[in-house]
Amino acid sequence: MGEKAARPLRADAERSVRAILEAAERVLSADPGASMEQIAAAAGVARTTIHRRFAHRQALIDALALSAARQLAAAVDDGRPDTAPPLVALHRITANVLEVKGAWAFALGVPADPESEAAALHEEIGRTCITVLERARADRLIAETADLLWARRVYYALLGETLHGNTDDADPDTLAARIVDTLLHGFGPRG
Fold first, then answer.
1. Total count of domains within the chain
2. What does the alpha-carbon distance between residue 162 and residue 144 come to, in Å, rounded to a whole number?
3. pTM of the entire structure?
4. Which of 39, 86, 129, 172 could form an SS bridge with 95, CB 3.0 to 4.6 Å?
5. Could you tell me the CATH number of the domain that includes residue 165?
6. Over the stretch 152-168, which tens digit does the pLDDT of each residue have?
7. Is the same domain home to 51 and 106?
8. pLDDT bucket at 112, cuts 50 / 70 / 90
């Protein structure tokens, strides 16, 4: 990767980078072909500021993807996947993920270089999801014979459909309850 080790940024430089990344998400969500100049204008910084922080457009997109992946990993960790009761963890993680994915849809849709930190974070999130599903199975919330890889795919699909098809502006907790209920119970009769 040939890059110098990253030094911690000063607080003002960190705010500037955060503003650039937030603007990049907004601008690129609306127009994936937007220029660095358009992103700089939306961030309220000079074009040279962006070029000083990001050598080229792809470096900015990579940084955006990494920032979003870190936020997603933190959202999953905040759900206490290893210690909270599985139903609580699943609900909290789902609500947290909906918030992050809703705010960073472009960045989280960027395919990560398989050797990148962002890709490693996504892999870890996938393993954590399986861990929570295993814990749910141990608590008899999921059938003992359930294919957990399939359950994870269905869960991810429910998250995606909720994010792309939600028109009722429900809050993340309400949406999380709907997703978890659908994952665990489907649409079959209850009784």
1. 2
2. 27
3. 0.85
4. 172
5. 1.10.357.10
6. 999 999 999 998 876 56
7. no
8. confident
Which amino acid is residue 122, in one-letter code? H
Residues 6+ apart with CB under 8 A from 94: 79, 159, 175, 176, 179, 180
Q: Using an 8 Å Cβ cutoff, are 64 and 21 in contact?
A: yes
Based on the fold, state whether residues 143 and 112 are members of the same structural domain.
yes
Higher pLDDT: 9 or 11? It is 11
What is the identity of the amino acid at 161? Answer: E
Same-domain check for residues 71 and 107: yes
Determine what percent of the chain is predicted with pLDDT higher than 70: 92
Q: 75 and 155: one domain?
A: yes
Which residues span the domain enclosing 174? 64-185
Q: What length is written for the chain? A: 191
Residue 19 three-state SS: helix
Torsion of CA 14, 16, 18, 22, to 10 degrees: 180
Encoding tokens for residue 48? 């040279």
